[in-house]
Design goal:
Chain lengths: 50, 229
């Protein structure tokens, strides 16, 4: 998923954009939130914990 | 960690919402790491942390209590050895954060009433304290966190008036707030916890390292524009 990056303009990225932030791997934007950090950090879900 | 922001004139607040369950081992680890990140954050005084309810298993029958190991074996279909291996990993990482988990004593319960008590505490500015106390009670102390007497005692320990706790537990107050938090989580695409939402603009999933959380705080703070409320 590609789209305009926003780090220079400072504007909030549109849903579906890829944000390029130093120190983070570019990640797509689901549901309006820009997701930061590793994709595989441990979570608990569905009553189970990874 | 403070529950309300203290703003220095000319600086802006940064709101961090954390979706978490009181029976969630990764959530307690994530909580400690967030606390460390905030301590190191240049604008720590501007950070407001709000704890949001997320039941990992809302289908867990109310009143049913079972040892966590048995529950995990049933959920995963794994053997006792496999379940212990899985929990040994999270126990070791928790120990790195100063948390001594005791899964031998932990009791799996429905956490709706626990979250209702946390919402009550939140109205008194004690939401963070209540969430911390209940995490500790379940993961470290082997307390049964759906038992009303237990919840009343734990709530009063953090400063909630006993009569208020008993009144809430006797009825269904704050059930809608708990459901509301869960609905918001779904709307934001949150399916696992801990999940950190910064100014309703950024999301961080899972028990990330302290440095990652600190970088996220910095990114969110330096973002232009008015923080979402």
């Amino acid at each position: 998923m590609n789209g305009p990056t926003s780090t220079e303009s400072g504007a909030a990225p549109q849903s579906g954009a890829v944000l390029d932030v130093p120190g983070f791997a570019p990640l797509a934007v689901p549901s309006g939130l820009v997701i930061l950090g590793a994709e595989d950090a441990p979570v608990c879900a569905d009553g189970r914990c990874a | 960690m403070r529950g309300r922001a203290l703003r220095v004139s000319g600086e802006r607040p940064l709101r961090v919402e954390v979706w978490s369950d009181v029976v969630c081992p990764w959530c307690y680890i994530g909580k400690r790491r967030l606390e460390k990140a905030v301590e190191r954050f240049e604008h720590a005084e501007n950070v407001e942390v709000v704890w949001r309810s997320f039941q990992l298993d809302p289908s867990h029958a109310k009143g049913v209590r079972m040892p966590v190991y048995d529950m995990l074996a049933a959920k995963t279909g794994g053997s006792a050895e496999q379940v212990r291996a899985m929990t040994d990993r999270v126990k070791a990482l928790a120990a790195d954060e100063g948390l001594t988990y005791d899964f031998d004593r932990a009791v799996a319960v429905n956490t709706l009433d626990a979250h209702r008590v946390i919402h009550l505490a939140g109205t008194l500015g004690l939401g963070a304290e209540a969430h911390e106390r209940l995490l500790r009670a379940h993961l470290i102390e082997g307390e049964t966190v759906d038992d009303h007497e237990t919840l009343t005692r734990l709530a009063t320990e953090v400063g909630v008036p006993e009569d208020d706790a008993r009144r809430v537990l006797a009825g269904d107050e704050y059930a809608r707030d708990v459901e509301g938090d869960f609905s918001e989580a779904r709307a934001l695409g949150i399916t696992g916890v801990p999940f950190f939402v910064l100014d309703r603009a950024y999301g961080v999933s899972g028990a990330q390292p302290v440095d990652t959380l600190l970088a996220a705080l910095t990114t969110a703070y330096e973002r232009e524009g008015t923080p979402a409320r």
